[in-house]
Design brief:
Distance between the termini: 11 Å
Number of helices: 31
Shape: globular
Radius of gyration: 34 Å
């Protein structure tokens, strides 16, 4: 998790320059009649008696030496007897001790010093008075990130002390953010989300009421939005997380210098988030902006620019601009080599080989990989990745025996790494399964995907990958005629991916299309029509009505209504298919002819049907059903890992 605690610690210190000491906060609230700037009253007990200090005593304690004329020249003092310093009362001694304890805590710099000072304060301050100190100590612990349980304990104490009424305050918002961060570290994602959402609402109230400076609100709001993005990503809700990351960027744009290094990192973070959602076109401008800033601030040969270029290569690959991707990769490699970053250079070289494969340069890719494999450890994940890419190149050349041997070597390495790096191993298994699929080794591909799914089900932050794997298993089961077995996998995939990517993502549309195909195969045309209608709606929005896959969904919907003998609707959707293909011009001439042939066939069937058999009303779309099938949902084939 990107931690905001270090900034909040410094922000809290800044706020304290405008905030009374611990005891003064509570005295001023309990005793409004006592002047806030009266030092003695600010350190007095929080008793309900509201004892006013003696002005004479106050004068004795805080008068300056020059206020006594006899002190300026002792020889003029007629009383030559040595004066005895006035004795402090027990109450005054207690006040002094409390003040010293406070100063000791505030001057502490290390966590150990702060904990020791806090423990000493516990005997002199009650829980309510310790609220601010608990918050500061909790933020310090969260910044270090080593003991989330202890962080949560101090955050809880702070919240109980500070959140004493419905009146919003910045300190309560900071405490709620800390509670959210600590719960996130403990993988209590639902609890974390609850605290962060409450903090977000509270900050909105503060800003709306104008009761707090916007400059004070923004650092806390940024920490809250970043926390929400991290938690939602961990819960697999990446589409929602993207909204929070976008707000983080907007806050930084209002508070930081336009071309600062931190702004460059923020643009790259957002580009990575879009890339994870396969929004490559949306990611591109943010990545280019990050490169522009980092080149200006750090130079063209900086590591940050190299990282930006590697991400840009991934984006261009997703956009199928493989030559541009390879160019960025080569530029990145030069910098990584100059800086001696061997591990990152190794991954960049593997990326380059995959780009060469995408460009059809199989022999070049194999040569690249042969050079890379010599640099890897025998039991390393990098070695497995090299053999996976090697297998892809060999498979493309139809050298299947050699390709399978490479995949067996890769699986042998990965098998030993499952518990150490489950996410990376799962992603590698997905890639291997696709290669077995290419070689028509469907049973092997399905078996490997089921193994991957069992790993991902234990990782809540990988819900999007879990959905993708379920979708692929379902599709392969459909392909091999195991239709009834496919449906549960496809239904699960639809629900997982809707939560991760949003209900209108094109991948969700493919799954619903496949699920419609499954129902049609099982002779359930009404259910099929429902699924195809959902698929068409999603694809029209995400891909456009003239995209080939959107047209396919429309064709399938026509087929489902034909199976129901609802020829009026079947003809209506078949005409839409013809119109869409005609929009492609001469290149779609064959598709237009086939669509017209089907339309003629439907009209002939309609003429032979009685009027009572014609259904003119479309079936309602499901409100919350999770279902899907007809086309392979290749999220993970397009998705690449981006180093954070």
């Amino acid at each position: 998790m990107r931690r905001a605690s270090s900034k909040l610690v410094s922000h809290l210190s800044y706020l304290r320059t405008f905030t009374p000491p611990l005891s003064r906060i509570y005295i001023s609230e309990l005793s409004p009649s006592v002047p806030a700037n009266d030092y003695v009253s600010s350190l007095s007990s929080s008793s309900s008696n509201n004892i006013r200090p003696c002005k004479k005593t106050s004068g004795l304690l805080f008068s300056k030496a020059k206020s006594n004329p006899f002190h300026t020249n002792a020889s003029r003092n007629l009383n030559t007897q040595i004066e005895t310093p006035p004795q402090l009362s027990s109450r005054q001694r207690k006040i002094k001790e409390r003040s010293e304890l406070e100063e000791s805590f505030e001057s502490a710099t290390s966590t150990e010093e702060m904990l020791k000072a806090f423990q000493e304060m516990e005997s002199s301050f009650d829980e309510k008075e310790l609220g601010l100190a608990s918050l500061k100590l909790g933020l310090k612990l969260d910044q270090e990130g080593e003991n989330p349980e202890k962080t949560l304990a101090f955050a809880d104490r702070a919240l109980k002390a500070l959140d004493k009424n419905d009146k919003p305050s910045l300190l309560v918002a900071m405490t709620l953010q800390l509670m959210g961060s600590a719960n996130y570290s403990l993988k209590r994602f639902n609890d974390s989300l609850g605290y962060l959402n409450r903090a977000n609402r509270l900050l909105g109230r503060l800003e709306g009421e104008g009761s707090c400076s916007v400059d004070d609100i923004r650092p806390v709001l940024h920490a809250v939005q970043l926390g929400l993005a991290n938690v939602k990503t961990a819960m697999g809700r990446r589409e929602e997380a993207l909204v929070n990351l976008t707000k983080c960027l907007e806050i930084k744009e209002m508070t930081l210098e336009k071309d600062s290094k931190e702004m460059g990192a923020a643009y790259r973070d957002l580009a990575e988030a879009h890339t994870a959602l396969l929004n490559f076109k949306e990611a591109l401008p943010f990545c280019l902006k990050a490169i522009e800033i980092h080149k200006k601030e750090l130079g063209n040969n900086s590591v940050e620019v190299a990282h930006d270029r590697r991400l840009l290569g991934v984006i261009y690959t997703g956009m199928e601009e493989h030559q541009k991707a390879l160019e960025q990769n080569e530029l990145s490699q030069k910098v990584l080599r100059n800086w001696g970053l061997s591990s990152e250079l190794l991954r960049a070289e593997i990326d380059a080989a995959n780009m060469q494969i995408a460009l059809g340069k199989y022999n070049e890719a194999i040569t690249t990989l042969k050079g890379v494999v010599q640099q890897t450890d025998k039991e390393s994940e990098n070695r497995a990745l090299v053999f996976i890419s090697m297998a892809k190149a060999l498979c493309s050349q139809e050298k299947f025996v050699d390709a399978k041997r490479c995949l067996e070597i890769a699986c042998g390495v990965l098998d030993k790494r499952e518990t150490v790096s489950p996410v990376e191993v799962a992603e590698a298994y997905m890639e291997i399964s696709m290669q077995y699929e290419t070689m028509n080794e469907f049973e092997t591909a399905i078996s490997l995907l089921k193994r991957t799914l069992s790993m991902l089900e234990k990782l809540p932050q990988e819900q999007h990958s879990e959905g993708s794997v379920s979708a692929r298993i379902g599709w392969l089961l459909l392909l091999t005629g195991k239709v009834a077995q496919a449906i549960p996998y496809l239904e699960s995939a639809a629900e997982r991916l809707k939560e991760s990517f949003g209900s209108k993502h094109f991948g969700v549309g493919y799954i619903y299309n496949n699920l419609g195909a499954a129902y049609l195969e099982l002779d359930r045309p009404q259910s099929a029509a429902q699924m195809f209608a959902v698929a068409k709606d999603i694809m029209d929005v995400s891909l456009g009505p003239h995209h080939a896959d959107s047209i396919e969904a429309c064709q399938n919907l026509s087929k489902a209504y034909s199976a129901m003998e609802s020829y009026v609707l079947a003809i209506q959707f078949q005409q839409q298919v013809i119109d869409a293909w005609e929009g492609h011009g001469p290149s779609a001439e064959d598709e237009v002819k086939e669509a017209q042939r089907i339309l003629t066939e439907l009209k002939n069937k309609a003429h032979g049907a009685s009027s009572s058999e014609l259904i003119t009303k479309a079936l309602p779309l499901p409100h919350s059903s999770g279902s899907s099938p007809t086309r392979n949902f290749q999220v993970d084939e397009k998705r690449s890992n981006v180093a954070h």
